[in-house]
Amino acid sequence: MLAKKKQGLFSFFFKKDKLFPIITAIAAGLYPLLFYYTNNYKLINSWGHFGYFISIFLLLPIAVFFIANKISKIIFFEKIQPFVLPFLNFFFFFFYLNIALFAGFSWMRTFIVFGMAALLAFLLLKYFKKIVVFQFLLAVIGVFTLAPVVSKQLNYSKEWLKQPDAIETALFKKKPNIYFIQPDGYVNFSELKKGHYNIDNTEFENYLKENNFKTYTDFRSNYGATLPSNSATFMMKHHYYNNGSSFTETINARNVIITENSVLKALKNNNYRTFFLTEQPYLLANKPKMGYNFSNFNLKEIEFITKGIGKPRDVIEPFQNYLETYTEGPNFFFVEIFNPGHIINRKAESKGVAGEREHYIESLKEANRKLTDLTTTILRNDSEALIVIMADHGGFVGMKSIEDAYRKNTDPDFVNSIFSSILAIHWPYGEAPEFDDKLKTSVNLFRILISYLSENDLYLANLQPDDSYIIIYYGAPKGTYKYLDAQGNVVFKKH
Questions:
Q1: N or C end of the chain, less CB within 10 A?
Q2: CB within 8 Å of 173: residues ≥ 6 apart
Q3: Residue 476: pLDDT over 50
Q4: Is residue 112 located within the same domain as residue 202?
């Protein structure tokens, strides 16, 4: 009975020759559009993305369906005319679903979709109107699925973005050039020597010592992925995932990191020129407004449909060019490299625990080469620079894939493999502040650095707890958990 009513609702439009192509075109693109937004909202939450996807998923098929329908009525095409709209509907529907599922285009998948669309148009012609109704019903379900995702974005609390003091307007008494270099997934030297890693990294350790870097044993991140970790680092505040549900994503994280944060405000208040250089446009995927003065990526280069990861772009050469061009400081560089990275994301693609560890070891060698090149270049040109090498999180070695981290596991080696991260600092003139013993986790890094630069230790009164958090999906009720306390003990406590 319900199905008849639904069909009756559309029958008026189906009988209208002029409207029918438009209705079938919308039916083809609407559910894939909603599906893509639901599963990738934090990657595509800009107005530019909205306009692009409306054009591609809805306006383009409307134009194609309308024109094709007109052409098909020419006498020459009268035999295929009944099949034109069904074919186009099936083709666009499954083509867009492919785009949504794989976040990219493939000729092979497109040829398969083409053949499948032709076959379905022939076999299901007499059921076509019912299929269109079904597509709209899917879209209705898609609306209800997307609604809480958008609602969470619109209603999330921005309280965590407020500082408890005036650190954003701190006046620096020291203004060295600052180089913040982030090697993705590089665990602390203390962890590399033990646990699941057990890797000899003596050569790079010695290089840092010889070049007056101070390393910080047992340093770790507060969150287990790039976006939640870096947003907390640059805001100098805990966000506790903002009651989110994603291990890797947090609401507005890219905008916080790239567009506006407390660290950038403090730097700009002290007339620092700011640079963002990255091998991958991962932090730029949703095209956030660029808050840095310079970057090796133009936002126009960022694809609308992307996973944020592609062919790595060299950062050494543009970095050297910036150094040569902007010799007068003060300058702040945020340089992101994607080695050593971490083990594979999905179990299905895993090489196994041993295989993933071997891959990490090889990638660690590449990270050491890049870090050596970068720091050698800096020290050659700027011997009294403030250089910070700090990873965003650990390498997850000891697991088959990142998916293992989604399940509760209180083994200390397992947990530290997630959070352990390198911290090595070249202090100007080799003079580390007496309070650098407070450098325990990444959320407090810049608050301590600003206290040092401003020679005002009052900012240290508002250091954040050195706790580490994660989102758990399995083995415990889904939610955000404190995994490590301020002393580095595994606690596993629901937040």
A1: N
A2: 453, 454, 455
A3: yes
A4: no
